[in-house]
UniProtKB/TrEMBL annotation:
Organism: Streptomyces chrestomyceticus
Record's keyword terms, sorted: Acyltransferase, Cell shape, Cell wall biogenesis/degradation, Peptidoglycan synthesis, Transferase
Protein name (database record): Peptidoglycan bridge formation glycyltransferase FemA/FemB family protein
Record carries keyword Cell wall biogenesis/degradation: yes
Similarity remark: Belongs to the FemABX family.
SUPFAM superfamilies: Acyl-CoA N-acyltransferases (Nat) (SSF55729)
InterPro entries attached to this UniProt entry: Acyl_CoA_acyltransferase (IPR016181), FEMABX (IPR003447), PG_Glycine_Bridge_Synth (IPR050644)
Lineage per the UniProt record: Bacteria, Bacillati, Actinomycetota, Actinomycetes, Kitasatosporales
Repressor as UniProt keyword: no
Cross-referenced PANTHER family: LIPID II:GLYCINE GLYCYLTRANSFERASE (PTHR36174)
Length: 372
C-alpha cells in the first residue's frame, strides 16, 4: 500500500495516540514542548482512503551555521513495525524530511528483538563465565523485529555504534514488569526475597509515600542532585522538570506524577512516573544518601507499580539497563535492582540512522561530541 505523509495538528496526533493501547511518551505532541531547544513537527501516515494509520513526532536539531537539520523521532514513528513492506512506510517519511532540509534521520523502533526473564538474568549474573547479557540465550525472540532489521539494512539504515555518535539516544535495552492479568499479591510474590523484605521493612519503619505537585519539584531536585553526585551522572537543569510537568499535564492531567517517600518528615526518595494508555514509565528517580536503611527507594517503586496496576496498565517500564552482567562492572547494581522486581530484560530494535548528507552527518557527530 502506498502511504502519504504530511503534517498533522497536535490534536490529530493526540487523537491517534489515544486510539492505540500504548505509545511512548516521547511520541506525544506534548513532548515537543519539553524539548524546546529542538524544532518539532507532528506527521501522519494516510492510506489510500485518507485514513490516519500512523503518526510520529519529529524533533529537528539544526547544525550550527547551516540550514539543514537532524530529524529525530525518539521511540517512533508509531507505524506497523511488523510489516513486510517497511519501505512503503519509511519511504514517504524520507521524502518528506528531505524536503524539510534534513541531513540525516534517526528513528527508534520499539519492536522487541529479544527478552530475558528475571530468572535468566539472575543465573547469568551468578555465572562468572558470562559478562554480557547479549551472550545469554534469550527466553523469547521477536520474529517481527528480525524481519524489520533485515529490511532496514537493505534500505540503507544503520544502527548507531554502541555508546558512540552524536547522541546516546534512547536506551535499546530496558527492564519492564508485565502487569496484565496479575494482582498486587501476585506481583509481590514474583519479586525476589530482597525486594519483598525491603518493601516490608520500609512499611515497618514508617516510610510514607505520597504524590506531590509542581510545587514539590525543588525538594525532588535537591535529592536528585545528591543522587547525581553520588552516582556520577550529569543532572538535568532544574527548569527541565517544571517544563516536563507543564507540557505533559496539559495533554492529560494524569500523564505525569511526582512521588515522594518521607521518613519522619525527611525526604528519602522521589520519583517521576509517566503514563500513556496502558504503559507506565519510571522516568526519573532520586534517593537521599542518609537513611538508606529505611528502603525508601523500594517503597516508592512499589507504590508506582501498584498505582500503574490500578490505572489499568499492562506494563511498568523501569527504563534503561546496560548489557553487563559482570560482577566487577559498577553498572551491575542497576540491572540487579530492576531484576529484583521479577520482570524481564527487553532489547528493542532501537535507533537507526539514515544519513542523507554524509558530510553534514559527520560534522554534526563531531559537533555533538564536543558539546559533551
Amino acid at each position: 500500500m502506498a502511504f502519504r505523509v504530511r503534517t498533522i495538528t497536535a490534536g490529530e496526533h493526540a487523537a491517534f495516540n489515544a486510539s492505540r493501547p500504548a505509545v511512548s511518551f516521547l511520541q506525544t505532541p506534548a513532548w515537543a514542548s519539553v524539548k524546546r531547544e529542538w524544532g518539532s513537527e507532528s506527521l501522519g501516515w494516510f492510506d489510500d482512503r485518507g485514513h490516519l494509520v500512523g503518526a510520529g513526532l519529529v524533533l529537528y536539531r539544526r547544525l550550527p551555521g547551516f540550514k539543514a537539520s537532524l530529524a529525530y523521532l525518539p521511540e517512533g514513528p508509531v507505524i506497523d513495525w511488523g510489516s513486510d513492506d517497511l519501505a512503503g512506510w519509511l519511504g514517504p517519511l524520507v521524502g518528506h524530511l528531505k524536503r524539510s532540509d534534513a541531513f540525516a534521520i534517526r528513528i527508534g523502533a520499539t519492536a522487541v528483538v529479544r527478552a530475558w526473564s528475571a530468572a535468566t538474568v539472575k543465573a547469568a549474573i551468578a555465572d562468572p563465565r558470562i559478562t554480557r547479557l547479549g551472550d545469554v540465550p534469550p527466553d523469547t525472540v521477536g520474529d517481527a523485529a528480525a524481519r524489520a532489521r533485515s529490511q532496514l539494512r537493505y534500505l540503507g539504515w544503520r544502527p548507531p555504534k554502541e555508546d558512540e555518535g552524536f547522541s546516546a539516544g534512547q536506551p535499546r535495552r530496558i527492564f519492564q514488569l508485565p502487569l496484565a492479568g496479575k494482582s498486587e499479591a501476585q506481583l509481590l510474590a514474583g519479586m525476589n526475597q530482597l525486594w519483598r523484605r525491603n518493601i516490608k521493612k520500609a512499611c515497618r519503619a514508617g516510610v510514607i509515600v505520597s504524590q506531590g505537585g509542581v510545587e514539590d519539584l525543588p525538594d525532588f531536585y535537591r535529592v536528585y542532585l545528591e543522587t547525581a553526585k553520588r552516582d556520577h551522572f550529569v543532572p538535568r537543569p532544574f527548569n527541565y522538570f517544571p517544563a516536563m510537568f507543564e507540557a505533559l499535564s496539559a495533554e492529560d492531567k494524569d500523564r505525569i506524577r511526582l512521588y515522594l517517600a518521607h521518613h519522619e518528615g525527611d525526604l528519602v526518595a522521589a520519583t517521576i512516573w509517566v503514563r500513556v494508555g496502558e504503559h507506565a514509565w519510571y522516568s526519573y528517580g532520586a534517593s537521599a544518601t542518609a537513611k538508606r536503611e529505611v528502603r525508601g527507594s523500594n517503597a516508592v517503586q512499589w507504590k508506582m507499580i501498584t498505582d500503574a496496576l490500578a490505572a489499568g496498565c499492562t506494563v511498568y517500564n523501569l527504563r534503561g539497563i546496560t548489557d553487563t552482567v559482570d560482577g566487577n562492572d559498577p553498572h551491575l547494581g542497576l540491572i540487579q535492582f530492576k531484576a529484583g522486581t521479577g520482570g524481564e530484560a527487553v532489547e528493542y530494535l532501537g535507533e537507526w540512522d539514515l544519513p542523507l548528507n554524509r558530510l553534514l552527518y559527520k560534522a554534526f557527530d563531531v559537533y555533538m561530541s564536543r558539546r559533551g
